Amino acid sequence: MSNNRVENINAKVMGVSKTAFPKTPQTLIPAISLLQFPFTLKEDQIAAVDAWIDNNFRGTVLYSTGTGKTEIAFECAKRFLGYIKSSVSSYYNSNRGETKNSVSMLNKLTPVEGFTQSNETEEAKSAKNDNHHPKNVHYSFFNILFLVPRISLIDQTISRLLSYGIQKEKVGAYFGERKETREIMISTYQSVIRNLNLIRRSNMVIFDEVHLIRDTAKSFSKIFDTVVEDPKKAILGLTATLNESDFKNSTILAVLPPVKRYSIREAVSDRRLAKPVVIPIKVNLTEKESKEYDVFTSKIKNISNRFKRYDVNSMTELLKKGGFASGMAKAWFSNVRKRKLLLSYAENKLSAAADIVSKKFPGEKIMVFSETIESIERLRDILKPQGINAKIIDAKVKTLERQKILNKWGSDFNVLLSLHTLEIGYNVPQVRIEIIMATTSNINQIIQRIGRVLRKHEGKDVALIYVIYVSDTKDDNVIEVVKKAIESGSDIENHAVKGKEQLRKAAGQYKSKVPKDKSGSTKVKKDFIGNEGFEKRVEKAYSIVESKLLEPNILEHTEERANEAQDDNSQKTKTKTYIIRSRSDKDKLYKVDIENKTCTCADFTFRHVKCKHIIATEFISR
Hints:
The protein is of the alpha/beta class. The chain has 24 helices and 20 strands. The longest helix is centred in the first third of the chain and has 26 residues, at 69-94. The termini are far apart.
């Protein structure tokens, strides 16, 4: 089969001229085979690739943001190509001389006729020398479709491919007026819905942020219906979060079941991500706001009780009935929106956010997330009289203008205000501070937002995530959602975000681990007694961690100690300790033994309480 024949087949499938395909000597070498990372993949990344292969080249990799999901996808594609070539080689070796049958076998392996007869390329010569392939048959196109949720991610993905050795003429974008039909194509979900042949022509389809194409959108079902038409097609899902108990994800779970998970907690423990320190900021509504909130809540409850419908889904069904019931459903949604809007720009919430920026970190790049455009506009207006410039990025800001804003972040302004737009795909590894103005309990959004500031960067081992919420409102459960999203595994942090009762319980139940002397008896037995002032110590511990971003006041140290077994010849073990510099007296240092939970400060030594230094080290330790 000639080169022109292969090109014409692709052109017919795509409905474009064959001139879209570049005629170069390398055209017949699969582009993904040229992939070369300038680094070695981590063990967890290789494990994810292996798990996907073991599941017959189908499934979802559930990896936290910043742990290299895109690189995993590229490696999966390269390994799938290797599998196909290996399968073909085995077929040739067992059917030498049967060229006609061999070509038939090749066509069965790939959706598009993937092999051709032509002059030998270097790859074909190599294969010939290795006695794998006939000299007149070699690989042509290995089509890969990489689907992303937003246009802004297309060029970002293309840039990654080019940086890993893929030739520019082998990669194309497909959206809007830009339709570049190439061997590796990057497109959006919306674009592919309008041209499902993009899926049919592909040997492999990669679904980035696969959690976004749930069963709630009927149009997305067409994507899955098409991708499963060919059982030989490789398919891969990528996401940081997927609620497996949500029935709306049933199609994703059926077509792309999770094959490997790597949580934020695991990535932090492996030092792949910075340690997130969640600092809850609780505020109250003003008297006026509280009255308005109660009015909205009362109306919502009355309508729900009247129709025995208490959630969005059931109320949406009522909306479809028409008449009086539909009118009540509209009123229900209206009051829900008004209440959410009220919480988003509550006066004390905006003031708390402004104080973090202006009083704690006036010179730091900070990312702020909110749920409504009204709230971030008000925050911008509050900061401006204080001499602090802030820029807003939302869906209305076009890609080119968005990039201009981002390029000036840190020079012309330090505070970036976002309304969902930067939750997905935008990498800011140098940013260490994030403010979430809570009015959402959507764990997918929370995980994506947290992930924006956890990527490692030189000198960055901790990221501060402020969650500002209004107590005794719908905001209350957001702290628990944040904790669940992070899965921090830190007992004190878990308690610190749960409220006063749990904090006091944590303080009262805690007992220190004190080393024994050579006789085996305890040198000093100390229980942390009482809980008076524990909340204040937690607040001071947060202050210690905050100051760590501005000055090196916490130093990690490892020292060798003899085992408790008692003699001078016993083997020594390494113990992690922290040296903390006093904020009031720069010459005073305190040593915290993180394993035994001891400190050299007066609060621990004489008052037997869990001091702010121990709490601070628990926040940042892995």
